[in-house]
């Protein structure tokens, strides 16, 4: 997101993922992403839209609270990025992603809003097979809006292998041929969703604008098949060996801990590259 990779692409991407039995919770997600790149003199800019529909099915809550208020949520993001070439093959990048993440049960407030952002410097080597990106991001991958460092080293030693090491994601790609590509991946996964309803939690009392949050370690395999020069299909199998899923108050106090165990997931995607038509 904050490296040189992908900033020249115009695309539409659809995704569907299902994570059954993350402890006593099933999670289903539908996602749509749109991106358009622009050139303004020496500045490369990107703009886009992301929409995600999340559905949860909870088990064994024992009527501690009304879980139905957390079963459906939406996330809508606008994003803009600016990438400017500097001296000595460095690129400066600034990204802003204002996001609404909520069950939208009542009128919008600042509790539904998160301003995700990132700033990075990327070094491109003369052979164009290596890049180094380092910077700072502010987002919800840790399950709460927090800043954390961004560091990626990416190298392509030959036409078949691409290796990316760093935070928040490490990936190793292998190009089988022009149409088939496989990868192993490890990274962070998280969300932070506002519940604008007032929910009663037994003896703890009632809470408005409580948050459903998740953060965990995401390990996976990915297979990509290029149907046409502009159409890419994506299949991901993954496992979350460790995660934390909780309901917290607007003051960040713990209300309910789902205590999830590990869970496997499946992700299906279709990417349409507009600038290859």
Description:
The chain is mostly beta strands and 277 residues long. It has one domain: Beta Barrel (Porin). The chain is built from no helices and 15 strands. It has strands at 11-22, 25-40, 43-58, 72-85, 90-102, 113-124, 130-139, 146-155, 161-167, 169-175, 180-200, 206-228, 231-248, 254-257, 263-273. The protein has a 14-stranded antiparallel barrel with strand order 1-2-3-4-5-6-7-8-9-10-11-12-13-15. Strand 6 (113-124) and strand 7 form a beta hairpin.
Brief write-up:
With 277 residues, the protein is mainly beta.
Provide the descriptors you would attach to this structure in a database record.
277 residues, mainly beta, Porin, 14-stranded antiparallel barrel, 15 strands, 0% helix, 70% strand, globular, disordered N terminus
List the helices and strands and how they pair.
Blueprint: E1 11-22, E2 25-40, E3 43-58, E4 72-85, E5 90-102, E6 113-124, E7 130-139, E8 146-155, E9 161-167, E10 169-175, E11 180-200, E12 206-228, E13 231-248, E14 254-257, E15 263-273
Antiparallel strand pairs: 1-2, 1-15, 2-3, 3-4, 4-5, 5-6, 6-7, 7-8, 8-9, 9-10, 10-11, 11-12, 12-13, 13-14, 13-15
| Shape type | globular
Helix content: under 10%
Terminal-residue CA separation: 23 Å
Provide the number of structural domains.
Answer: 1
Assigned CATH superfamily: monomeric porin ompg
